[in-house]
Amino acid sequence: MNANADEPWRAASPGNVNAAVGRVIRELRDLKRITARDLAARAGVSSAMISRIESGQVSPSLSMLEMLAAALETPIAALFRDTGSAVSDFTHVRQGEGLKSRRMMGDHVHDFAALGFHRRHDMQFEAVMVTLERHDEVAPPTYTGHGCVFIYVLEGEALYRYGRQEVHLKEGDSICLDAELRYGVQKVLTRRLRFLSVQAERR
After folding, report:
1. Are 114 and 73 within one domain?
2. Is 137 inside any structural domain?
3. pLDDT, tens digit, for every residue of 60-109?
4. Do residues 115 and 185 share a domain?
5. Longest alpha-carbon distance in the chain
6. Which residues, including other chains, have CB under 8 Å from residue 10's CB and lie 6 or more apart?
7. Residue by residue, what is the 3-state secondary structure of 113-161?
8. Phi, psi (5° rounding) for residue 187?
9. Looking at residue 85, what is its pLDDT?
10. Is 163 left (phi over 0), alpha (psi -120 to 50) or beta?
11. Which of 5, 51, 129, 151 sits at 20 to 30 Å (Cα–Cα) from 40?
12. Are residues 43 and 119 in the same domain?
């Protein structure tokens, strides 16, 4: 078959956007446990065309990608997930490690270990391990910000403030919240409180 302007594909060289899109289509098809023939039938194309697309040999048109996305029950944008920048960050922190710091805010002191920080064009992500010692004379600070925060208590108990609410958190408890309202530890009830804090926000 010869490619022309009316056909929904054109010849493509491997190792480019077409190959990346083809790999994603193959992965999504495998996840759904359907054959190339099944996908072809759902999308209204030939099995040979599915094979050529998945191997990056052709460049499918937008209309064909829409049909394939519908057949795979996924947003069309998902087909392009591997076509962005080849640069990505990877962090592996072993037990007890991490970038350790001590934060002093007035009379309040707490220790934390940064476990991961990623900044992309669309979002920012940070994970820290926080340790607070009980100090009845000094109230821990509260915060406001953007995005969402997830807290998981690893050790101890505390009263946690979110807006006007106060939550009693114990070991194994978690809380997830929008950072727009004031939040933070209100009072440490045990000798020590240790928790994982994860925050993500749009840039």
Report:
1. no
2. yes
3. 888 899 999 999 988 888 888 777 655 567 788 888 888 888 888 777 78
4. yes
5. 81
6. 3, 58, 59
7. EEEEEEECCCEEEEEEEEEEECCCCCCCCCECCCCEEEEEEEECCEEEE
8. -160, 135
9. 55
10. left
11. 5
12. no
Together in a domain, 66 and 138:
no
In the chain, the amino acid numbered 112 is F
Going by C-alpha positions, the residue among 127, 12, 24 that lies closest to residue 84 is 24
- Intervals of the chain under pLDDT 50: 1-14
Q: Are residues 41 and 113 in the same domain?
A: no
Is 87 a member of any domain? no
| Residue 48, C-beta contacts closer than 8 angstroms, at least 6 positions apart | none
Q: Which of 112, 35, 29, 38 is nearest to 73 (CA)?
A: 29
Q: Which residues pair with 36 in a beta bridge?
A: none
Residue 39 lies in a domain: yes
145: which 2 tokens?
């910000």
70 near 102, Cβ under 8 Å? no
Flag whether 69 is in a domain.
Answer: yes
Chain position carrying tokens 């707490």: 110
Q: What type of residue sits at position 53?
A: I
Q: What is the pTM of this model?
A: 0.58
pLDDT confidence of residue 138: 79
Name the strands in the sheet holding 192-202, side by side, starting at the edge strand that comes first in the sequence.
Answer: 99-105, 108-119, 123-133, 192-202, 148-155, 174-178
Residue 189 belongs to domain spanning: 99-202
Split into its structural domains, the chain has a count of: 2
Same structural domain, 134 and 179: yes
Q: Identify the pLDDT of residue 166.
A: 94
